[in-house]
Design goal:
heterotrimer, B: alpha/beta, C: mainly alpha, 0% strand
């Protein structure tokens, strides 16, 4: 399968899921269940990673600002912008990919191997509508929720780091934050999170449903799903960032 | 007695797999262990080569009691005792030659060549001899892979051969051939063989003695003749298929 | 809690085993070289992609921020320094964790569940020396080299991105790199690459080797590798930065 065929198949799965969701053919019970699964499984690691990144960023920016202009009063704002616009959505999406994306690919590959997918088809049920569609919604919403929640924790972590280690006081910290961070940034983050999130199940499903036989097939499908998702996320992020940069210049 | 299991118990979590397993195999004998899936047949073989160790009980191989042996202690046991796995378990990323010589790396190249030639003939794969270096396991059929795995186990010349479900998943004709092979290898080369199987028909034709396992212990033992006339429930269930 | 400590202990033991068996690499020379070449070739495109896009994204963002501030001129230096110190190693490592790490644990996992590892043990060969050690070192060394390579590529990616989108002068950009990238930053970038490489090698080999539960186990091993790699990378990044910071500060005169 070449790249174009893969993209085509993935888009087919994505569109099928979306149409199933819009025409109400998806069980809302299943959506809630998946929402819980996605959110619950990843919240710990996403909060952990994004918070640490927040702390790292604030130290880094402090170092660089002092280097360039000898003054670091503006770093909270700058550091958090990078976190909001880039790192929170990317890291969140990549972690969801590792956890849930891999699971989706593995499960569908196993189902393919045991002929469950064909069995469903004979009963008039389509696996994409049954399995992928609810997860698409769940993934999109979880990605958004997780980015937002982990961002809150990251800001708190950065605040503590700034106050304890970098000689900041609370007032100026949050002042700098409010000066530089605007609603636009949060909107960008949410948009990215939702877009990344909705692609993960479709991409993982593509690899899972096209898996070859046996343990090796499952292994490859799972691996390729993680890789495919990672690359897609970073490329999409670049495109969105580029458009944003061009639009605001 | 070459091999002796004495009241062996083994649990996996809450599941009792071996429940007081006791049996003996004499030198040079072909011994079949039959039973339904999950009754501990493969597990008992794995104990003999130290892939598992018993919770309770003793296991003798040739006057050595191995139940508390360490990985190092098992090195010389594994030279004596070769296990043919249910899945061929050939290393896919290495050539056929590299797979075959795994157990005989310490021998000279000439010695290796000689042994490989003889062994491939014994298992009926002499046609592969010229292409051992170029071909890899995935290019062989399932039956060929199983034979090659057998050859690999035979090359270090172990006195005892253990077969874990050698014909599961093979068609009846190939299965019969494999059983004939087991018999000829055992008798021609003087090996002791223990075969785990659920193929009663071939077992009766090949074995010197058989044991039937149920729930982790032996419920019936004897020569093929004795088993054929047995009144034990599990044995009769296995015999039902054969008319 | 006790279980977690036990698990950690197993991991440390496993890593130590792999580490001190480096000489095995020379014994199993062919296998190691084969693995090394394999891993390298497979990951090259991923590294280049990750590098270019990471560099580009960071450059675009830094450009937007510095523009508000009127300090566009220092873009080259600041962006490069920031990228190679922090975000670059992390994001590129994330990509590699998927491509190389997940792949290797799937490979080892498949070998485990098809009894290849047990079969080799029965033939008197130590499966760790035979299968795992060459792979570990192939993955670790490759990752280290690829990370450094990826960081270099990210500089190019950054340059291209802002040149094309905002017409930033490439010469000015490159000049600033030389001015603002300290040796400390380079040391940080390289030490992170080393640590991340070793971590990824260990995690994928451990999860692959410890796979259990048939076909499903393989999928689970891949998942664990991906998740554990990413989390460890972030945590390791934090600690390495912190330690290097302390070491530098002890001789610092700010």
């Amino acid at each position: 399968m070449n790249v174009f065929q893969r993209c085509a198949d993935t888009l087919r799965i994505l569109f099928k899921s979306i149409s199933a969701l819009l025409s109400g053919r998806t069980s809302s019970k299943e959506i809630w269940k998946q929402l819980y699964e996605f959110g619950n499984s990843s919240i710990g690691i996403v909060v952990l990673c994004v918070t640490f990144m927040g702390i790292i960023l604030i130290s880094e920016y402090s170092y660089h600002m002092k280097l360039v202009i000898g003054n670091d009063s503006m770093i909270p704002g700058f550091a958090m912008i990078l976190l909001i616009r880039e790192l929170a959505p990317i890291v969140g999406a990549l972690l969801i990919t590792s956890k849930m994306g891999a699971s989706i690919a593995a499960e569908l590959a196993a189902m393919k191997n045991t002929e469950q997918i064909d069995a469903y088809r004979l009963l008039g049920l389509d696996i994409v509508e049954l399995y992928v569609a609810p997860r698409t919604v769940a993934s999109a919403l979880s990605a958004w929720a997780l980015s937002t929640i982990s961002l809150a924790f990251a800001i708190m972590g950065a605040w503590i780091a700034a106050v304890v280690f970098l000689n900041f006081s609370t007032g100026p910290f949050f002042q700098s934050l409010f000066v530089f961070v605007s609603g636009k940034d949060l909107l960008l983050m949410s948009l990215k999170a939702i877009i990344f999130g909705s692609c993960i199940p479709a991409i993982s499903a593509h690899y899972g449903l096209n898996a070859s036989f046996g343990a090796e097939g499952v292994g490859h499908a799972t691996t390729d799903a993680v890789v495919g998702n990672s690359i897609t996320i970073i490329v999409m992020d670049f495109v969105i960032t580029y458009l944003y940069a061009v639009a605001t210049t | 007695m070459m091999i002796h299991f004495d009241d062996v118990y083994k649990r996996f979590g809450l599941k009792r797999v071996l429940n007081g397993l006791t049996f003996s195999v004499a030198k040079g004998e072909i011994f079949f262990i039959l039973g339904r899936s999950g009754t501990g047949k493969s597990v008992s073989l794995k104990h003999m080569v130290g892939l598992l160790s018993p919770d309770q009980g003793k296991i003798w191989i040739d006057d050595e009691e191995i139940s508390s042996y360490s990985e190092e202690d098992f090195v010389h046991i594994r030279k004596k005792c070769g296990l043919v796995f249910q899945l061929p378990a050939l290393v896919d990323s290495r050539s056929l030659y590299e797979n075959l010589v795994m157990g005989i790396r310490h021998l000279s190249t000439d010695e290796k060549k000689k042994r490989i030639s003889t062994t491939l003939h014994a298992v009926g794969l002499q046609s592969l001899e010229p292409v051992l270096f170029e071909r890899f396991p995935p290019s062989l059929s399932y039956g060929e892979q199983k034979r090659l795995a057998l050859a690999r186990t035979l090359l270090p010349d172990p006195e005892i051969l253990l077969y874990d479900e050698p014909t599961t998943g093979l068609d009846p004709v190939t299965a019969k051939h494999i059983h004939e092979l087991i018999r000829s290898i055992s008798k021609d080369f003087g090996k002791t063989s223990i075969v785990v199987s659920h193929d009663m028909r071939n077992a009766l034709a090949t074995a010197d003695r058989l044991a039937v396992l149920d729930a982790g212990r032996v419920v019936d033992q004897g020569t093929p003749e004795e088993i054929r006339n047995s009144r034990v429930v599990m044995t009769m269930a296995f015999l039902e298929d054969l008319v | 809690m006790k279980q977690r400590l036990q698990h950690l202990n197993e991991h440390l033991n496993f890593f130590w085993n792999l580490f001190i068996r480096l000489p095995q690499v020379f014994v199993e020379r062919e296998e190691f070289l084969r693995q090394f070449a394999d891993v390298g070739i497979r990951s090259l495109s991923t590294t280049v992609t990750a590098g270019i896009f990471t560099g580009a994204i960071m450059a675009l963002q830094f450009h937007l921020q510095l523009k508000d501030f009127g300090a566009e001129s220092v873009l080259g230096g600041l962006n490069t320094s920031g990228t190679i110190r922090e975000v670059g190693p992390i994001l590129i490592a994330f990509m590699l964790a998927g491509k190389v790490g997940a792949f290797t644990s799937a490979e080892l996992g498949t070998m485990k569940v098809t009894d290849q590892i047990q079969a080799v043990r029965c033939l008197g060969i130590d499966p760790i020396s035979f299968f795992v050690v060459p792979r570990f070192w192939a993955v670790a060394l490759n990752s280290i080299l690829l990370l450094v390579f990826g960081l270099v590529i990210s500089v190019i990616g950054g340059l291209l991105a802002v040149w094309v989108s905002a017409g930033i002068n490439p010469d000015q950009y490159l000049l600033m790199i030389a001015r603002f990238t300290s040796t400390e930053s380079l040391a940080l970038a390289i030490s992170k690459s080393v640590i991340f490489g070793l971590l990824m090698g260990h995690i994928c080999c451990a999860n692959g080797y410890w796979t259990e539960g048939g076909t499903q186990g393989v999928g689970l091993a891949v998942k664990k590798t991906a998740v554990q790699s990413m989390v460890s990378i972030v945590l390791a990044d934090f600690f390495v930065s912190w330690i290097v910071e302390l070491v530098v500060r002890s001789g610092d005169f700010r």
